[in-house]
Amino acid sequence: MRYLVSIFTGLLLSGCTINTNFGSYVATKANTEARGNLVQVYSQDEIMRMQTTYLGLVETEYCQESRTGRLPPNTDLNRILRAKVQKLGGNGIVYKGCQNATMFGRCFASVQCEANAYSVDFN
């Protein structure tokens, strides 16, 4: 009987952990989406013709630690960069690009993306 109670308790706790992790993932993704939508993408030429304050470089990276799987698309990484710009107080971004690498440290494949963050004054 104790054995069955232990198994049931373990399954119950596992279920709670899975739901908690999933909820956290969804909340993080929703936050990134909302923040990223507040940031406008510009080319380097466009940003040079505007009244701006340079806020700095933003970066994001992804490490694929197993042989199976795929790297996320650049659109997902760019969304993360836009969210980082908004967290800095910016509303404009100029993408610099993404670099892929294979067998880099503990990663079978990795990608790193960079962008410049700006605060654009529309007055």
Task: Note down, in words, how this protein is organized.
This protein has 123 residues and is an alpha+beta fold. It has a domain at 37-121: Translation Initiation Factor IF3 (2-Layer Sandwich), CATH 3.30.110. The chain contains 3 helices and 4 strands, in the order H-E-H-E-H-E-E. Helix 1 crosses helix 3 (74-87). It is elongated. Residues 3-27 have low confidence and may be disordered.
Characteristics:
123 residues, alpha+beta, Translation Initiation Factor IF3, 4-stranded mixed β-sheet, 44% helix, elongated, disordered N terminus, RcsF protein
Q: Quick one: how many beta strands?
A: 4
CATH superfamily of the domain at 37-121: Hypothetical protein apc22750. Chain B
Q: Tell me the name of the CATH class of the domain at 37-121.
A: Alpha Beta
Rounded Rg: 20 Å
Helix-strand string: HEHEHEE
**Strand order, sheet with most strands:** 1-3-4-2
Q: How many helices does DSSP assign?
A: 3
Helix content: 40-55%
Oligomer: single chain
Helix/strand/pairing class, anyone?
alpha+beta
> Percent of residues in beta strands?
35-45%
Which ranges are low-confidence, i.e. pLDDT below 50, for 5 or more consecutive residues?
3-27
Shape from CA axes?
elongated
* Amino-to-carboxy terminus distance: 73 Å
Organism: Shewanella gelidii
Protein name: RcsF protein
